[in-house]
């Protein structure tokens, strides 16, 4: 059978139709992606647009957008500088680029992204620029929101602890370069726990916000303010003398105590105590400045409410500071070299006396091989801002262990410092969501104080965890001032009775009454209970008779670096 050859004219026609179809497909793809394609010939300054050309309607006169000069004029100054630099390039290579810029439209400010290629002429000059344009306003706003959350305290809008520490370091360098003095102060709202109890956590938040606003209004334009903890705000006073600092401090204290604070629950009277440190003479880094200002604050509080103290060096405090700094350096090195590990302690079912899950207790393997418990290094990590990295490392280790051993369940702790950091809590949720397959085997433990320090943020964090399938426990319950009504509002699953009420329980009628009451209340709120520090069968039997659900203590198992599942195949491990 012979094949008939098509005439050349027919072949050319088919090719032309194919080209038209390809062009239409590209046009539809650009329109579907919400992108406007452009081809800009530099010689005549003409732009051909295609695809989602309704983007051009953002311009007040879209017809003029066929000219490159008009397109440039529409860009923000920064965008115009970028495109001009690309056009000025002299190169025989095709240069690809991305530019983000703002424009003004009837809808307000809009962010656009220009992605394209600069096509050179024979001499290397720009001959054409082709690419696509799309709206990225929502993406930019989300990026700005995340940046804000990473640098700002969500409640007050002031800088967060990490950002403020960086600002202190910058202030120290500026003072050194200019041979001037500056100061860092920490202000603590007096008796905020009493306000919590009397008016509720919502009112306490209103007090924190108002105090922050009043402090900020009393500062000079060059000064900086941030929130560093639940009831504490940090202030950097730029170049100042002793007289100027005294004046600003008195102005701040007057601003806070001068008028009552109106909250939705009633009027609240507030005062602040303050500690200060001179920079750079008495501290050489942001961490050191924060630590020494806290020391001064402790002295101010020792004199009662509304006190003020300036840090002065003492040999004893200097030795304590050096010990703290040495521990912090050791923690940082342990993080780097993976020497922070878990000791696992079983949580035992009271009725069946078998482990149901294990708590992950942090340990640091020192350079000499000795083991340090969390109590030896976590306080230093909290004071010097390392605890966020420590808690993140702990979460990652726990999740890795859960992936490796599908039959185990683990409890991980969140420290008080990180529990008050919204951006860290958000990153915690994102990490658990990314490892959703193990979420149902995670119990997150928060201390009673940390959970109620920022009630609204804790409530949101706990709700997100429970939606992912995690359980939530309140640790050291009974050591603070929580009511069971607050626990019900937080929707936790488990309360862990503070060990100080369990130790020696059989010989303490007062503790027996207290523990029995806690357990009865927990049952009414459908909360499971764990008794900590159980040290004998006699205590266990007594707790079981009270209705306690689980035991934890040396009698049922000490924390160990080598848990049972490490020496058994994963599929046979019982939890």
Provide a descriptive summary of the structure in words.
The chain has 575 residues and is α/β, with parallel strands linked by helices. The protein has three domains: 26-135, Beta-Lactamase; 144-313, Reverse transcriptase/Diguanylate cyclase domain (Alpha-Beta Plaits), CATH 3.30.70.270; 341-562, EAL domain (TIM Barrel). It is built from 19 helices and 21 strands. The strands form four sheets. Strands 13-14-16-17-18-19-20-21 form an eight-stranded mixed barrel, surrounded by four helices. The radius of gyration is 32 Å and the shape is globular. 36% of the residues are buried.
N- and C-termini, Cα separation: 76 Å
Strand content: 15-25%
Model regions low in confidence, pLDDT < 50 over at least 5 residues: 570-575
Strands in their spatial order, largest beta sheet: 13-14-16-17-18-19-20-21
- Rounded to an integer in angstroms, the radius of gyration calculated over CA atoms is 32 Å
> What is the 3D shape?
globular
Structural class: alpha/beta
Q: Describe the oligomeric state of these chains in a short phrase.
A: single chain
Total helix count? 19
CATH hierarchy class name of the largest domain: Alpha Beta
CATH architecture of the largest domain: Alpha-Beta Barrel
> What is the residue-mean pLDDT, rounded to a whole number?
86
Q: Quick one: biggest sheet?
A: 8 strands, mixed, barrel
Number of domains: 3
The count of β-strands is 21
